Amino acid sequence: MKQYDALLAAASTTRRGTPTAAELAIAVLAPLSLFLQLLALVSYLASPALAYTALSDHFLKLVPSGGDDFDIDNGKLLAPILIPRVPGTPGQVAAQEHLVNFFRNELPSWSIEWFNSTGKTPVTGDRDIPFHNLLFKREPPWVQEGQSNLLTLVAHYDSKISPEGFIGATDSAVPCAILMHVARTIDHYITQMYDEMNVLGEGGTVPMDMGVQILLLDGEEAFLQWTETDSLYGARALAEHWESSYHPANSFYKNPLDQISMFVLLDLLGSADPTISSSFLPTHWAYQAMATIEQRMRKLNLLESNPKGPFLPDAEKVVSKFGRGMVEDDHIPFMRRGVPILHVIATPFPSVWHTINDDGAHLDMPTVRDWARIVTAFTLEWLDMMEVEPKDETSKGG
Ligand SMILES: [Zn+2]
Fold this sequence. Notes:
It is an enzyme of class 3 (hydrolase). This is Peptide hydrolase. This protein is α/β, with parallel strands linked by helices and about 400 residues long. The chain is about 35% helix and about 10% strand. The protein has helices spanning about 5-10, 20-45, 55-60, 90-105, 170-200, 235-245, 285-300, 330-335, 365-380; strands at about 110-120, 130-140, 150-155, 210-215, 260-265, 340-345. Helix 5 (about 170-200) packs parallel to helix 9 (about 365-380) and helix 7 crosses helix 9 (about 365-380). The longest helix has about 30 residues, at about 170-200. The two termini are about 35 Å apart.
């Protein structure tokens, strides 16, 4: 995503102290941000209320961390992504195979879709660079096209072309691995939920027809320097396509954008002491839900990290403080089209950001595993999984 380096130099002459990247984003994007928030608010008010029951302490205790699967050398989920993954290179093909094979082999109930596009970049001349978004989805088996509302968990899996050998561990190998962990952990609960709904003859009413999709987007990074056209290649192509992909005339949701109940974007996660701000008033309630899960898990001693402050400190943010902050990232093309966004990104950015040091060795593994727990619990809660809460401690969450 974009950090406002050039602006930082300019703005620091007119402000006391050195502004953070987030503050600069605030200054630059305030009018746009307000407009987009209004759009998202309208969209939120128009969507049906979702059932929402907090997970019990008992359930929170069952949420697994992923453990050794996040090991940077041999971990089944993370290690294969800790390679350069520049679009159009063999490294990226290897990353794609890892991601797709995981779902194909371990989560056969999830649909797998490639969304392919091409684009020209400022450093690759007339050559068309391929971009491949990977879309994984699980929805109730009885739904018609355009009927389910989809919690949409998002990260980008491409890596930046420079500096040479750049890994992008926080940016965004770790977020991708976390989403794989979320998928495999929630899978059997979803199966149980859909089976029980089927037996009871539930479902078919829109608020209950909940599913989840994971979007691993390509081409987030700029090739030369971040501009509107040199960045977000995959996200821009997908949002544009979905906007004009109309469902049949009698569908509840008019297109795939409309089906997104919340677009939860993870980025720059895995360094110690992250701070995630609440960026958008219309989705602040969802931020609060995630912050509450973090607080509860910390109180129950379920988290390993020992940060200076909470990862999500903005639960009490007052209304008058909103309308001002935004970091450009994969949510932008979706937000512009009215999709509600929860942006889970560390600001200030990790100190290794866009340097050769953003690699496995510089990750803080307790923080990585805590994010895996928090995002998994948030997802279970969103999907109302108290309905299928395991009865005893011996049941493991996958
Ligand atoms: Zn980046």
